[in-house]
Each structure stands twice: as structure tokens, then as C-alpha cells.
């Protein structure tokens, strides 16, 4: 019987021409294509069989790669599932640091586009529906995927307080939840794509409450 180590050794053995090509080509495009194929195959398997029915061997076969290729990236099923769910989320843009409003809008536009993806809605519901059966999976997903994104939004809000764009004493945690919750709630309860300007409206409504008052307002002049 061949061991996993045997599979790994067999999978990484390449011909001399192939090795030379790999050296010439920057960015390892074959590796990136294999990774994306595995993630896509995992999402398909989740859709077909649910979390319980996903098998790493079957995913590798669907993706057209060897098992060793899969295990080099994700040592187990749980790691693979987290990566697959995470792949449904586009990376949030790095804050430019010039305007809290503009940075928040840019982030929420990405989140709203994610929420409009039918795959995201189905898999999100499935992931959280399995929370009682797979609490560790859901906890790791939140720690590794959700919290880093929330932290980026928190950092923008904290910067706004420090710069005076947001009022002192702003509850950063509540503000972050209001922003993300608006996007999630709309995507969950409305199957139609978000209207243009939705992210701007969400941010502007929040800033009505936590935005710093203008100098004229502080002096009692009408605004």
C-alpha cells in the first residue's frame, strides 16, 4: 500500500523540461490554477453533499489534481473548508488614510458585491446552519476570516476618532457592527443586487450619528 508520503513524492516528481519551465515562469501560475480548481471543487462538493459529505479525495478528483497537491496546501478537511468559504469573499481594499468616509465606502462596496453572489448566500447559510454540529469549524472561520476583516474596519474607525473625523467616545465596536450588519441583512433578506450608492448611503447614515460636528455647529450656528 502506498503511503501519503509516497503520494507526495510522486506528485512532486517532474521531468527536466518541466522543471526548467517552472524556473522560467514567474508566479507559479500552474500552482495558482490548481489551488483555485481545488477551492472551486470544494464549493461544488459542499453544494452537492453538504459539509458532512465533503471528502478530500473526491475534491482532488473533481479538481483534476493529486491528493498530495491538496494536502500540501491544506492538511485536513477543516482547513480546506475554511479556505473554500473564505474564497467567496473578495479581499477588502487597504485603507488609503485620506478620508474615513471614502475608506468605509470602499470596503462596504466590496462586501455588498460579495453578498450579492448567490454562491455566497447559499454557502454562508450552510456554514452557519452547521454551527451546532461543527462549532470548531465556525469558530476558526470567524477567527481566521471574519475577524481580520472586521479589524480593518475597526482600524479605520479608530483612525477617524484620532483624527477628529469622528466624535470622541465613538463606540467603535457598535459602529463596525452597524456597518457590516447593514450589508449582511440586506443580502440575507433581499435577493436583488444592491442599488448603486447603497454603500454610500449606509456609511453616510452612520456618520450622521458619529461624525464630528462642524465648527459652526459647535458654536451654535445653524447647519
The number of helical elements comes to: 12
Distance from first to last alpha carbon: 79 Å
- Secondary-structure element series: HHHHHHHHHHHH
State the low-pLDDT regions, or none: 1-27, 214-223
Strand content: under 5%
Average of the residue pLDDT scores: 81
Output the structural class.
mainly alpha
Summarize the main sheet. none
Number of strands: 0
Rg over alpha carbons: 22 Å
Global geometry? elongated
| Helical content class | over 70%
Structure in words:
With 223 residues, the protein is mostly helical. The chain is built from twelve helices and no strands. The relative contact order is 0.09. The N terminus and C terminus are likely disordered.
